[in-house]
């Protein structure tokens, strides 16, 4: 199954956080045994995810599985919980018996809540106990209910956020830049975006490198490719590359290859 091309969300239960956390955590999710069996049966399957620069926690509640991050492959044991940045293409090789609890942060969210800069995690699979207390992870695994896990983690993250709030300035500027660019339909240049934020282009560049780990230009190129590809998959007949800032379909096709590593025709008929 491939992100955007296939609805990979149908295999999971989802929860969107409330209060202050909504600005920094995109969602909590947990794989559903019933939905997984309904859609894939007893078969092994692979979920392919494209770059998003979103730090993601995987807490393993089930069996071992494999992660491919870029060109590197990792075996994740039953007792192992990991953090990945998702700055590259990621593939998770699953069994029908897999049971994974996921926390996906927005870019910079890890720093705003835990005071941990995401840049250091590029192209890595990091053991989760390096950023979360082992006792907390153990408690999450002991609980048997999705809602109980969410309540435990939300309370922990809220407490941590209140302690770190004063250091979230850089993250807030970057998030504001992302919001403005999305509202402009991805039309602002980096200089125009900096002007909207009453900052210099150099300052905005520095903040993106510090918070996300890539330049504004590179980050928004990734966001544009994701948005355009999702729009194309949703309705090919109404799709216009101009709506996403592409010169023509050829320009869009080339970006799809750069973004997904494959030709559009290989995934969409």
Instruction: Give the radius of gyration.
Output: 19 Å
Shape assignment = globular
Q: For the record, what is the CATH homologous superfamily label of the largest domain? A: Jelly Rolls
Low-confidence stretches: none
Number of strands: 10
Name given to the CATH architecture of the largest domain = Sandwich
- Assign the structural class, choosing from mainly alpha, mainly beta, alpha/beta, alpha+beta, or little secondary structure: alpha+beta
- Total count of helical runs of at least 4 residues: 9
Instruction: Give the tally of structural domains.
Output: 2
Q: How far apart lie the N and C ends?
A: 15 Å
Order of helices and strands: EEHEEEEEEEHEHHHHHHH
Percent helix: 25-40%
Mean pLDDT: 90
Strand-residue fraction?
15-25%
Strand neighbour order, sheet with most strands: 1-2-9-4-7-10
CATH topology of the largest domain: Jelly Rolls
Largest sheet geometry: 6 strands, antiparallel
The CATH class designation of the largest domain is: Mainly Beta
What can you see in these coordinates?
Residues 172-261 form the HTH araC/xylS-type domain. InterPro entries: HTH_AraC. This is AraC family transcriptional regulator. With 269 residues, the protein is of the alpha+beta class. It folds into two domains: 8-165, Jelly Rolls; 169-266, Homeodomain-like (Arc Repressor Mutant, subunit A, Orthogonal Bundle). The chain is built from nine helices and ten strands. The strands form two sheets. It has a six-stranded antiparallel β-sheet. It has a four-stranded antiparallel β-sheet with strand order 3-8-5-6, with no helix packed on it. Helix 6 crosses helix 7 and helix 8 (216-234) crosses helix 9 (249-260). The longest helix is centred in the middle third of the chain and has 19 residues, at 146-164. The two termini are 15 Å apart. The model has no long low-confidence stretch (mean pLDDT 90).
